[in-house]
Amino acid sequence: KIVHTGDTNTAIRFPAADTITAETGGSERLRITSGGQVLIGNTADPSDYNSGADDLIIGSHSSASGATILSPTNNSGFIMFSDNNGGGTNAYRGQIEYYHGEDYMRFMTASSERIRFGSSGQLGIAGANYGTSGQVLTSGGSGSAISWTTITGTTINNNANNRVITG
Questions:
Q1: What is the pLDDT of residue 100?
Q2: N or C: which end of the chain has fewer CB within 10 A?
Q3: Side-by-side strand order, sheet with 76-81
Q4: For the residues of 13-73, what is the DSSP string, one character each?
Q5: Mean pLDDT, residues 23-37 taken together
Q6: Residue burial 147-166, b: 16+ Cβ < 10 Å; e: rest
Q7: Which residues, including other chains, have CB under 8 Å from residue 68's CB and lie 6 or more apart?
Q8: CB count, 10 Å around CB of 75?
Q9: How far is CA 110 from the centre of its chain?
Q10: CB burial of residue 133 (10 Å; 0-12, 13-18, 19+)
């Protein structure tokens, strides 16, 4: 192990073949396994997790866990899902973005925006298309996107609760 001079509870260890750990305060905080997985805040066995999601394991078994993406007030934080085929739109085939400038969150598939949640809870379809008052979401069937649609030939009176509307 490598120990900080005068601070014996801070160390870098090599506890097993092809494994590195970092300790602070006498506790392991980071582990890189022989399989290349990175564990932060735990000593979990990566084989206990889905092999499609075991490259980075963050958390503790004893308390709430999470990760924070910090970005400037007028910019975005991202989680990207990249295609293995290189640059261009393959670099962000799937994406979750939070934009601080307008406080919205958007979700993308196939490199295109599909759903956006606006700062007031609006639901946007294919971008900031929040529809207009009175519109409803309509299915285009399997293989087609949903869309905002105005219901015609139906009147809703008194904005009352507990009503079934048929058309």
A1: 96
A2: C
A3: 76-81, 94-99, 104-109, 112-117, 123-125
A4: E--STT-EEEEETTEEEEEE-TTS-EEES----GGGS-GGG-SEEE--SSS---------T
A5: 92
A6: ebeeeeeeeeeeeeeeeeee
A7: none
A8: 11
A9: 16
A10: exposed
